[in-house]
Amino acid sequence: SSIMSLNLEFDVRRSSFTLHARFDCVPGETVAIIGPNGAGKTTLLKAIAGLVPVDDGSIRLDREILDRASSDDFVEPDRRPIGMVFQDYLLFAHMTALENVAFGPRARGEKVAEARQRAKALLESMNIADCAPLRSSSLSGGQQQRVALARALAIEPRVLLLDEPLAAIDPASRHELRANLSAQLRSFGRIVLLVTHDMDDVRAIADRVIVLDSGRVVWDGPVTDDGWLPR
Q1: What whole-number distance in Å separates Cα of residue 72 and Cα of residue 65?
Q2: Could you give the CA distance from residue 75 to residue 141 in angstroms, rounded to a whole number?
Q3: Taking the C-alpha atoms of 3, 86, 133 and 122 in order, what is their torsion angle to the nearest 10 degrees?
Q4: CB within 8 Å of 90: residues ≥ 6 apart
Q5: Separation between Cα atoms, residue 148 and residue 128, nearest integer Å
Q6: pLDDT by residue for the chain (231 residues), tens digit each?
Q7: What is the rounded CA–CA span in Å between residue 223 and residue 91?
């Protein structure tokens, strides 16, 4: 098919479970991945990002093989068109917000001026332009979350992976940040996978929900208007 899609057909063996991923994602779709602790949610994201190799099967993006167990096909994480926001953001503490966001484009060969311009525009789009010169270690949780999202988007990824992006945010700020994140993802328009424990995140942000349990997909369906979710 001509439509770009992420095709997941792989296993990752862990000591306590084997992750069996067998599904596709298409652009414009935000897929929430939910399930109990130890279900394989973060392992799924790490495999797509290239941080965990697959033990069986393959991961393809738009027909390009990112990882295939039966061959040497493996695209290194920093060569994949994939942006990731980790639960604790993993920002470079010694760098400013602007430098953090410009880091990915710079690492991929973009000129300094262009990378900084791109970073500035992204920070502006997230309403945190005033954070640009500040060290990331001095930012609030909400500001760090937006910088991490801007950094992931700066490489113009075709897939965005979000691991509990709002978990570290205090409840008072979470509603606003959730709305902000939802708007950013809609304008992004590519493939998004969101791991979360929060049903409010699922209802506000996702249009499809996949439930993992012990490494297996036990539910895969749309998030309906009334917020119905599998019990």
Answers
A1: 10
A2: 32
A3: 20
A4: 148
A5: 12
A6: 446 799 999 999 999 899 999 999 999 999 999 999 999 999 999 999 999 999 999 999 998 999 999 999 999 998 999 999 988 888 999 999 999 999 999 998 999 999 999 999 999 998 999 999 999 999 999 999 999 999 999 999 999 999 999 988 888 888 988 998 999 999 998 999 999 999 999 999 999 999 999 999 999 999 976 655 655
A7: 32
**Total H helices, total E strands in the chain:** 6, 10
36 backbone φψ class: left, alpha, beta (φ>0; ψ -120 to 50) = beta
Quote the tokens at residue 207: 């249009």
Q: Does domain 6-81+157-222 have CATH number 3.40.630.30?
A: no
What are the residue ranges spanned by the domains of the chain? 6-81+157-222
pTM flag (> 0.85): yes
Q: Output the CA torsion sign for 55, 60, 39, 85.
A: positive
Residue 125's identity, in one-letter code, is: S
Copy the structure tokens of residue 77.
């994480």
160 token code pair: 């965005």
